[in-house]
Amino acid sequence: MKAASIREKGVVELIDVPDPRPGPGQALVRPLQCGICGSDLHVYRGAWKGGGKLGHEVCAVVEELGEGLAGPPPGTRVCAECFYHCGQCRFCRQGDYNLCESISYLDAPEHSAMAERAVLPAGSLFAVPDELSDAAAMLVEPMAVSFHAVRRTGVSRGASIGIIGAGTIGLLCVVAARAAGASPIIVAAKHPHQAALARELRADRVVSIGEEKPADAMRHPETGEKLDAAIDAVALGTTFSTALSVVRRQGSVVVVAGITRPLLSALGPLVGGELRVTGSSCYGTTDGEPDFGHAIRLIATGAVPVDRLVTHTLPLEQVAEAFRIADDKSTGAVKVAVRVAD
Q: How far apart are CA 167 and CA 90, in angstroms?
């Protein structure tokens, strides 16, 4: 069967791999649609070592369960968390299974979910409601990332929040922040098409990076005060420093982006303002329910304009072109999807 793989920096190709078989606790699935995540692009650019394995933002159909396993029955359309967790360690027991002491990611020997078949941990699968399209189901995983990040800020109804970056995660943070009742929501966007989408998602103000200085412009539009919270959804160059600079004293800053190199940051606001700074890794459990459940419901409400966020969809045979488009924001790309099967 065919699977997408990165053999060297900037080169994606289809390779032939053996058909996988589900082991204990696993499910064999047939991927339908798979998104290109920022982490996939980090591997593509050579910034992360990922073994060339691609794809975890997936909508798939269950084909077979491992022996003796109870799980979504064959024929069920599912989306999936991107890792295995043990269910036994202190973090799993308290619902923070994204911090599992034995965490491992969706790695078959040769490939992940951007393939004609994949083996996934059955415990990571979530049934997809019929009303969600394959593209919408594919977005559940990044929506869960964004939902988790917004909850990590601690914002509640009426709190102001700034979001640095308007890629998929930053834009979905707007959706999650709006659902949490945050207001105003101010977004710093680098590219015009990202800024336009942030406005469509009802961001209260969009700051265009390069035309305005986010550290000066990201203030409450009515009071001129600094913000209650900020999310760094880029983690590149001075973005973390910007996030620190836009929040009020005792405000909160969450970093959700993947770190590929050391960040340039002025830490004066952190100390002088007694800021609360934390990271946000994937997703776990919020209010006793997996973040995936919250994400599925948010998307099902229609709060996510799937057809606007998924800007390009290419077949598996054109996966190299899909990565080229995703890596070049001048194409207008936000979320690029690879259609694996019908």
A: 33
Cα separation, 139 vs 37, in Å, equals: 10
Q: How far apart are CA 176 and CA 304, in angstroms?
A: 10
Rounded to an integer, what distance in angstroms lies between the CA atom of residue 319 and that of residue 209? 31
Domain boundaries 2-139+304-339, corresponding CATH code: 3.90.180.10
Written as six digits, the tokens of 111 are 């490939």
Write out the H or E segment, with its range, that includes residue 44. Answer: helix 38-44
What are the tens digits of pLDDT across the range 73-87? 999 999 999 988 999
Cis peptide before 184 (omega within 30 of 0): yes
Closest by CA position to 177, among listed 150, 144, 139 = 150
**pLDDT digit string, tens, across residues 32-41:** 999 999 999 9
CA atoms 172, 176, 177, 179: torsion sign: positive
In this prediction, residue 111 carries a pLDDT of 63
**Please, what is the angle between helix 168-179 and helix 291-300, to 10°?**
80
Please provide residue 12's backbone torsions phi and psi, each rounded to the nearest 5 degrees.
Answer: -110, 135
Helix (H) or strand (E) segment spanning residue 61? strand 57-65
Domain boundaries, given as residue ranges, for the chain: 2-139+304-339, 152-279
Give me the CATH code for the 152-279 domain, please.
Answer: 3.40.50.720
* Amino acid found at 15: I
Q: Give the distance from CA 156 to its chain's centroid.
A: 22
Residues of the chain short of pLDDT 50, as ranges, are none
The neighbour count for residue 265, using CB atoms within 10 Å, is: 18
Residue (of 112, 139, 123, 113) closest to 84 by Cα position: 123
Report whether 254 contacts 279 (CB < 8 A): yes
What pLDDT was estimated at residue 52? Answer: 62
CA 104 to mean position of chain CA atoms: 17
